[in-house]
Amino acid sequence: MTHPASPALLTDALAHPTLQRLQQRLAQRVPQEAHDEGARTAAVVAVLRVREALPELLFIKRADRAGDPWSGHMAFPGGRHEPADTSLEMTAVRETWEEVALDLRVGRLLGRLDDLAPRNVTLPPIVIRPYVAVVPHDVTLVPSEEVAATFWMPIDRLGHADAQAEYVLHHGEARARFPAFRVQEHIVWGLTERIVRQLLPLLEP
Predict the structure, then answer these.
(1) What DSSP character marks residue 77?
(2) I need a surface site. Which of 5, 90, 130, 185 has the fewest CB within 10 A?
(3) What is the C-alpha R_g of the chain?
(4) Are 133 and 100 in contact (CB under 8 A)?
(5) CATH number of this structure's domain 7-158+190-203, picked from the four choices 3.40.50.2000, 3.90.79.10, 3.90.980.10, 3.40.50.1240
């Protein structure tokens, strides 16, 4: 059974110096929007919490599913915009609840980053809008059948040399190399890696 998150813990998280800087910087920047009439739209959320004075970032590992171009990938909660969604922000909130039973209303959406589109030609045309949220550290995650696992990664570890990696994509006889992060035994690359690269400078002193 899940339990309600503590509002006091959210207040404490938002008072953390790193997250205060993040709030200020997100409020000051104008995120770039991408428009592609032939592409679908989607939204994801970079969810942060503060545990034992350390800001942590939530990653999910998508379940292996036939026909899913992101099957098995490390990602952020999120998914495609549906006709009933009144905005991409609503898409982000709905998908996060559906995928890991995390109600972002117990936290706070701080803003958004620049829109992104895949660089991998094997992926369908889609524009992703990344949001940033903070939640209390006592939230309970309940992965759906779409999610194989969840991981909280301390933000400062992502800047360490041992967290830097490379992903090699094989497409027929061609190979493409992508920068990546190592999160435990998993590799974060592609759109998720690019979102992390946007986020990290906003958290720096």
Answers:
(1) S
(2) 185
(3) 17
(4) no
(5) 3.90.79.10
